[in-house]
Amino acid sequence: MAVLHLQNTKKVSAERGYSVSLLSEVQKAESHTDTILYSDGQSVVVHSAIMSNSSELMRNLLASSESKVIILPSFSPVLSDFVSLVYTGHVANLSVKDTDLLTSLCTELGMTTTTTVDKDNEHRGKRSEFLKLETEIDIQSEERFRLRLPMSRIDHRGGRALNCGHVFEGFNGRIQEEYNCSPVGPYEGPYDQDPQIPLFAQLSKSKLNYDKYTNFSHPEKIQCKIFQIKQKNEDIGDLDKIETLEVVGNSTDKFVKPDDEHRVFYTCSKKSCMIPCPCNPCNSGEGQCPEHKIMHMDLFDENEHAISIRSTELSCSKENFFTFSRSYILKYPGIPKKCPRCRKDLLHHKSYHMDFHWTCKFCKLYQYKLYPKTVKEFYDREVKEKSWYRSVCPYCDTKFSG
């Protein structure tokens, strides 16, 4: 598999990274407009300042034209890859055909690119940059069985272009970069409240409830199935674990959660499928990183410790992203973001823990959210939890006197 890299017309700071440096250019722009690229009935939107920064031809063209629509012939298969390229500086997992097509598109737009071989993908199979949302499974009675992750896992590659009106600094800057570049999407991790409470209790714009958040989907006309994890799945990437599922038989009974302390099972929107969670801890027997433990919330380090971000916003681009009910941050004090084992554990938590996992350190930290049965009780419990942290020593959990 190939990786295509974009060479910019301006020097990009290696320390700050491609995306953050380009967003700095956006911030300097006098006006914030969008450029629409249209091909074969499909279109994508790119911030005009970033398009201008990608080549001299684009800078001159967009400066001299009032129209911000560029019509392209026969490039629709790689339009979403083009968006990823101009916003991140590279795009991976390209086939030879798509690499040639995307290179040709960049040449037409005056951009200079280089191609490298992704050695990891060469030897271990294709890996995704984004969470794989669906898979097609061969079954005997039907031609193909298409299974999709729940609605909480959203394909944001084409529509999540970053129209950033502001580049934040400090911890908010970190949140902005991680959210806008998340391979999972806006809903990372499990449904972290009682199933009776709609998600709008925490995110006012969300239309998801517990069933929509956790239930897989498949074509209505196809009978529900019982699934298992393939025995040989080591070569399937962390973001592609939906491909580890295989059918072992038909299911006619309504789904009942198995009494299993170590594994979590999901069902579908028709409520009869039995689908094992494809995350690594549920299937490998390894558990999570034993070296790093969750610590007291007051010991959270904004620069060093891991986080998850939840929001209904398309991107983190404006100050109101950080206001109540538009987003919330889940902090994991004591879990270093640089530990490879912890990074993998957290990625599987964000990607495949649609429902609460009692063996997961990231889930268990916020288990208090599961107990309230109403929205008012939920808010009261949030206040009580913060009060508890103030009442105990951050280092030994001894309760303060008085």
Feature tags:
402 residues; alpha+beta; 3-stranded antiparallel sheet; 3-stranded mixed sheet; 14 strands; 28% helix; globular
Question: Can you characterise this structure?
Answer:
- It is a single chain.
- The protein is α+β, with helices and mostly antiparallel strands and 402 residues long.
- Helices cover 28% and strands 18% of the residues.
- Strands 5-1-6 form a 3-stranded antiparallel beta sheet.
- α2 crosses α3.
- The longest helix has 17 residues, at 375-391.
- Mean pLDDT is 84; it is low at 9-16, 119-127 and 158-162.
Care to count the β-strands?
A: 14
Kindly report the spatial arrangement of strands forming the biggest sheet.
5-1-6
Class by helix and strand content? alpha+beta
Tally of helical segments: 12
Quaternary structure classification: single chain
Mean pLDDT: 84
Spans of at least 5 consecutive residues with low confidence: 9-16, 119-127, 158-162
Helix-strand pattern: EHEEHHEHEHEHEEHHEEEEHEEHHH
- Gyration radius, to the nearest Å? 23 Å
Biggest sheet character: 3 strands, antiparallel
Proportion of residues in extended strands: 15-25%
Helix content, binned percent: 25-40%
Describe the global form. globular
- N/C terminus separation: 63 Å
SSE map:
Elements: E1 2-7, H1 18-28, E2 34-39, E3 42-47, H2 48-54, H3 56-64, E4 69-71, H4 79-88, E5 90-94, H5 96-108, E6 112-117, H6 119-124, E7 134-137, E8 145-148, H7 170-180, H8 210-214, E9 225-229, E10 245-250, E11 265-266, E12 275-276, H9 280-284, E13 305-311, E14 327-336, H10 340-352, H11 361-364, H12 375-391
Parallel strand pairs: 2-4
Antiparallel strand pairs: 1-5, 1-6, 2-3, 7-8, 9-10, 11-12, 13-14
